[in-house]
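Good morning,

Attaching, inline, the backbone tokens for the sequence recovery test we're adding to the shared suite. The designed sequence is right after.
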């Protein structure tokens, strides 16, 4: 499996795990559904800035997309709402919120490591 296929598999798995519709994510990224499909299937290289947007939305580090065996269960837990009721325009706020959570968890882990 090449790098684009690994990344595509991971972004698709995370999208599905978190319950986002294909069209919702395409609109959030301001790309066509076909482009998203090409990225998810490893037929096209996904630009870094789009990976950053997806990483924030999915609550992972963008470098996690390169992992051949990404631990999907270890990502920031899903929030308690139905994603099918969210407008694509609201996804930016959700991504910012998840980025704050991820940063907080990383800082907490670092501080805990220094206390021991």
């Amino acid at each position: 499996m090449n790098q684009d296929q690994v990344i595509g598999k991971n972004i698709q798995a995370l999208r599905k795990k978190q319950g986002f519709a294909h069209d919702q994510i395409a609109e959030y990224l301001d790309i066509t559904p076909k482009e998203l499909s090409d990225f998810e299937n490893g037929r096209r290289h996904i630009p870094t800035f789009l990976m950053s947007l997806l990483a924030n939305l999915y609550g992972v580090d963008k470098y996690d997309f390169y992992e051949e065996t990404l631990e999907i269960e270890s990502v920031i837990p899903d929030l308690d709402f139905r994603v099918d009721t969210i407008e694509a325009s609201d996804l930016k706020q959700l991504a910012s919120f998840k980025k704050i959570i991820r940063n907080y968890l990383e800082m907490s882990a670092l501080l805990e490591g220094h206390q021991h």
